[in-house]
C-alpha cells in the first residue's frame, strides 16, 4: 500500500475467524469475503472513526479450498496437491467506513498455473519455512515464483492484496493514492 502512495496504519485483527464447515457448499470467494469481513469488523470496533480494510486470501484447487497449513505435514500435503496445474488465488476485501456506504465487500480471483515440484524441491521449500502462515502453503514473493508457469489476473492479488480492486473500493470515500 505504501508503494501505491496510501498513508495507513497496520493493525493485526484479533477477531475470531469463523470456521466454515466443509459441507456448507460455500465457495472460496464467499469464504475469502467472510474472513475479510470478520478481520475488518474486529478492528473497526476499536477504530470507529477510521476507514478499515480487511483482507484474506484462500487458494482453491479442483474445487477444494486450501487454507493455511496446520503444520509441516499439512504443508507437504497441500504442496503436492497444489503444484499440479491450475489453481485459483482468491482474496476477499472488506472496507468499513464511518460514512455511507459503511461496508463494501468484494473479491478478486487470479488463476495460477504451477509446475510440479519434484520431491527434493518440496523438501527444500518446506525447510525454508516460506510455507508458514500462507494460504496454499506457498508465497510467490518468497521464492514460490520459480514454480509459476503462468498468471492470469492480478499479480498483487497473489501477494495478498489486489491493489486495483482496493483502489476501486476506496474511490467512493475519495481516498486516492
Structural overview:
The chain is an alpha+beta fold. The chain has one domain (about 20-170): Maf protein (Alpha-Beta Complex). It contains 5 helices and 5 strands; from the N terminus they run αββαββαβαα. A 5-stranded antiparallel beta sheet has the order 2-1-3-4-5. β1 (about 50-60) and β2 (about 65) form a beta hairpin. The termini are close together. The model has no long low-confidence stretch (mean pLDDT about 85).
Short account of what is shown:
This protein is 29% helix and 24% strand. With 177 residues, it is α+β, with helices and mostly antiparallel strands. The chain has one domain: Maf protein (Alpha-Beta Complex), CATH 3.90.950.10.
* Largest sheet descriptor: 5 strands, antiparallel
Terminus-to-terminus distance: 9 Å
H/I helix tally: 5
Oligomeric organization of the protein chains: single chain
Strands, count: 5
Kindly give the count of domains.
1
CATH class: Alpha Beta
| Mean pLDDT reading | 86
Strand order of the largest sheet: 2-1-3-4-5
Please indicate the percent range of residues in DSSP E strands (runs of 2 or more): 15-25%
Order of helices and strands: HEEHEEHEHH
Radius of gyration: 17 Å
Low-confidence runs (pLDDT<50, min 5 residues)? none
Second CATH tier, the architecture = Alpha-Beta Complex
Task: Name the shape in a single word.
Answer: elongated
Amino acid at each position: 500500500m505504501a508503494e501505491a502512495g496510501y498513508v495507513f496504519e497496520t493493525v493485526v485483527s484479533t477477531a475470531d475467524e469463523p470456521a466454515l464447515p466443509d459441507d456448507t457448499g460455500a465457495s472460496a470467494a464467499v469464504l475469502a469475503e467472510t474472513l475479510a469481513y470478520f478481520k475488518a469488523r474486529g478492528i473497526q470496533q476499536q477504530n470507529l472513526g477510521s476507514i478499515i480494510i480487511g483482507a484474506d486470501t484462500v487458494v482453491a484447487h479442483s474445487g477444494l479450498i486450501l487454507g493455511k497449513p496446520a503444520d509441516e505435514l499439512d504443508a507437504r500435503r497441500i504442496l503436492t496437491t497444489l503444484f499440479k496445474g491450475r489453481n485459483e488465488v482468491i482474496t476477499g476485501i472488506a472496507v468499513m467506513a464511518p460514512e455511507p456506504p459503511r461496508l463494501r465487500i468484494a473479491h478478486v480471483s487470479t488463476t495460477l498455473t504451477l509446475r510440479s515440484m519434484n520431491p527434493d524441491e518440496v523438501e527444500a521449500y518446506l525447510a525454508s519455512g516460506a510455507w508458514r502462515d500462507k494460504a496454499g502453503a506457498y508465497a510467490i514473493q518468497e521464492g514460490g515464483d520459480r514454480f509459476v508457469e503462468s498468471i492470469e489476473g492480478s499479480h498483487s492479488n497473489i501477494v495478498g492484496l489486489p491493489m486495483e480492486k482496493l483502489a476501486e473500493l476506496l474511490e467512493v470515500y475519495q481516498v486516492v493514492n
